[in-house]
Amino acid sequence: MSEINLTFPDGAVKTFGEGVKPIEVAVSISKSLAKKSVSGKINGSYVGMNDVITESGDFQLITTSDDEALQILRHSASHLLAQALKRLPKFTNIQFGVGPFIENGFYYDTDNGAGNQVSIEDFSEIEAMMHKIVKEDLPILSQEITRDEALKLFAHDPYKIELINDLPAEEKITIAIQGDHVELDRGGLVPSTGWIKHFKLTSVAGAYWRGNSNNAMMQRVYGTAFWKAADVDAEIARREEAKERDHRVIGRDLDLFFTSQEVGSGLPVWLPNGATIRRQVERYITDKELSNGYQHVYTPVLSNLNLYKTSGHWDHYREDMFPPMDMGDGEFLELRPMNCPSHIMVFNHKPRSYRELPMRIAELGMMHRYEKSGALTGLSRVREMTLNDGHTFVEPEKLEEEFKSILTMMMGVYRDFNIKDYRFRLSYRDPKNTEKYFDDDDMWEKSQQQLKTAMDDLGLDYFEAEGEAAFYGPKLDVQTKTALGNEETLSTIQLDFLLPERFDLKYIGRDGLDNHRPVMLHRGIVGTMERFTAYLIEMYKGAFPTWLSPLQVQIIPVNLGAHGDYANAIQQKLQNAGLRANVETKDAKMGYLIREAQTNKIPYTLVLGDSEVDNDTVTVRKYGEANTSTMSFDQFQKLIVSDVSNYSRVTEATE
Ligand code: TSB
Ligand code: ZN
Question: In Å, how far from its chain's centre is CA 196?
Answer without folding.
Answer: 30
